[in-house]
Every structure is written in C-alpha cells, then in structure tokens.
Amino acid sequence: MKKIIIIGFLCFFIGKQFCLFGKMSESNPFFFESFKSDTIEVDTSKISRKSPFGAVARSFILPGWGQIYVHQYWKAPLFFAGAVTMYYYTFKHNSNYLNYSRRYDDLLKQNPNHPSLNILKLKRENARDNRDISIFFLCGVYALSMLDAYVDAHLYNFNVSEIFSLNIFPNINGFNLTISFLLFKN
C-alpha cells in the first residue's frame, strides 16, 4: 500500500511540476521534438488479440486450457496438476466418508453402546471435513486459473521492451525525468 501511495504522489508531483513550470506546453518545441524523435508508430490492425471471455471459458472447462490459449504454456501443467490433485483428494475423502458412515451406521444398528462408535463418528466427521476442504481448494484452483487466463488475455499484446521506461535521476535543481514509450497509431 505504501508503494502505491508513493508512486501516486510521485506521479502527482511530477505532473504538477510540468504544469506549473510550463515544460509540457506546446510553446516549448524542444520538449515535443524530443518525444517525436523517440516515438515509434505501430499498425494495430496486424496485432492478434485473445478474447478474455474465451480464456475464462476454457479455464472453466479445464484448468490450464486458458493458459494454453494465451500462450502461457508453462502455467498450464501447474493448474492442471493442481486440479487433478484436488479431484483426487476430494474423491478419496468422499470415499472415506462414505465408508466410515456405512460402518458407523452398521455398528450403531448392531450395538448402540459399542465403545468404538465415537471413534468411527470422529473419523467420519474428519473425512467429511477433509472432503469439504478439498472441494474448497478445487474451487480455488479453478478460480485462480480463470483469473490468470483473464489477465493474460488482456495483457496478451502488452510489450515489455526497452522502449517502455521511466528514469528519475537526482539533479541539483531537483529531479531529471526521462520517459520513453511506444505510441500506437489506430
């Protein structure tokens, strides 16, 4: 939270400095010429896009499929393995729950005062709780897979290159700010 406040304050302060001292005005041709010389134009019609809804739908059907759709191949086995593991534990604990429940009911019918009834009841409740926790984690794997696919689909065309940079250097008069960016032409 502190980082966000500091970054917001810096952006506000730097923007205020440009506005107050007229460094970003059109009357200063040198400032805009420096930006014009560093600007690269890109035709956005040739950029392929990925549908965020398509990525989420694929991840809902099979965790990891949305990551394959947005070309994040290294994440797909992680989400798939997480889902398979949670399915395994869900079915295992459900099977244990049904087994202990059946044994408890049979023993209760035979002898309601049997000393191992409490042990079987505790094991049954423990298996049910573990099954419910496994289902919760399975839903978490699905949700995380869908969220990750959604974000990756939105950031599919995001370019992380040397062109994007923000450099702030201390100076005698304050700070020097150098901004480089990529300008998209529609």
Commentary on this structure:
This protein is mainly alpha-helical. It has six helices and four strands, in the order ααβααααβββ. The chain has helices at 2-21, 29-38, 52-61, 65-69, 76-110, 117-154; strands at residues 41-43, 165-171, 174-180, 183-185. The strands form two sheets. A two-stranded parallel ribbon has the order 1-4. Strands 2-3 form a two-stranded antiparallel sheet. β2 and β3 form a beta hairpin. α3 packs antiparallel against α6 and α5 (76-110) runs antiparallel to α6. It is elongated, with a radius of gyration of 29 Å. The two termini are 35 Å apart.
Brief account:
The chain is mainly alpha-helical.
Topology overview:
Elements: H1 2-21, H2 29-38, E1 41-43, H3 52-61, H4 65-69, H5 76-110, H6 117-154, E2 165-171, E3 174-180, E4 183-185
* Structural shape: elongated
Radius of gyration: 29 Å
Going by helix content, strand content and strand pairing, the class is mainly alpha
How many helices does DSSP assign?
Answer: 6
Number of beta-strand segments: 4
N-C termini distance: 35 Å
**What is the succession of H and E elements?**
HHEHHHHEEE
Main pleated-sheet profile? 2 strands, parallel
Helical amount: 55-70%
Largest sheet: spatial strand order? 1-4
**In what range is the share of β-strand residues?**
5-15%
The low-confidence parts are 16-39
Mean pLDDT: 79
Structural features:
186 residues; mainly alpha; two-stranded parallel ribbon; two-stranded antiparallel sheet; 6 helices; 4 strands; elongated
